[in-house]
Amino acid sequence: xxxxxxxxGDFTLGEKxxxxxxxxxxxKRGNADTDDLKRRIERIENxxxxxxxxxx
Length: 56
Description:
- The chain is mainly α.
- It has one domain (8-54).
- The protein has helices at 13-29, 35-54.
- Helix 1 packs antiparallel against helix 2 (35-54).
């Protein structure tokens, strides 16, 4: 799920808040289908990774 090249510090404040909310929703669902929330988190991770690699 987590991209290995992305550190927590690479996320913007808004992305951190969005991830925290999605993780809370995943915990609330328990073992139910959480694939949609995982995909949303992966999209946020990919955005942070693109921004990190573009800044180098």
